Amino acid sequence: MKKDKEQIKIENEIHAMHGVTKQQILEDFEEFKAYLHQKISAGKKLGLDDSKIIKSAAILGDYLAKHEEPRNAEEKLLQELWDIADDNEKQHLAQLLVKLAGH
């Protein structure tokens, strides 16, 4: 599968995170939601519409499912749901995560 520019950008940002920061974000689900909220707010300030934000969340979900081990019960549940979901269901999960983190 060919990666698009947005996917490459998101993956590069994750790789560039300082280890401690990434660890903190992934250790605690509330930290993870706060990180998503920050990124959603930044995206909206840049003029991204909801569909772009949801697409970015889906890319992040794919990356985390492939490259990170769940560090808490919430992440474990999300990973299990992600693993069994088809592409359409992943978009819905991403949409729900954006909604959850956007509040």
Task: Offer a concise description of the structure.
With 103 residues, the protein is mainly α.
Q: Into which percentage range does the β-strand content fall? A: under 5%
CATH topology value: Cytochrome Bc1 Complex, Chain D, domain 2
Low-pLDDT stretches: none
Name the helix and strand elements from N-terminus to C-terminus, one letter apiece. HHHHHH
From the spread of the alpha carbons, the general shape counts as globular
Protein name: DUF3243 domain-containing protein
Organism: Bacillus amyloliquefaciens
InterPro entries: DUF3243, YmfJ/YflH_sf
Pfam families: DUF3243 (PF11588)
What do you see in this structure?
- The structure is a single chain.
- This protein has 103 residues and is mainly alpha-helical.
- The chain has helices at residues 5-16, 19-27, 29-45, 50-67, 73-84, 87-102.
Which keywords apply here?
globular; mainly alpha; DUF3243; Cytochrome Bc1 Complex, Chain D, domain 2; 103 residues; single chain
Q: What's the layout of helices and strands?
A:
Blueprint: H1 5-16, H2 19-27, H3 29-45, H4 50-67, H5 73-84, H6 87-102
Helix pairs in contact: 1-4, 2-3, 3-6, 4-6
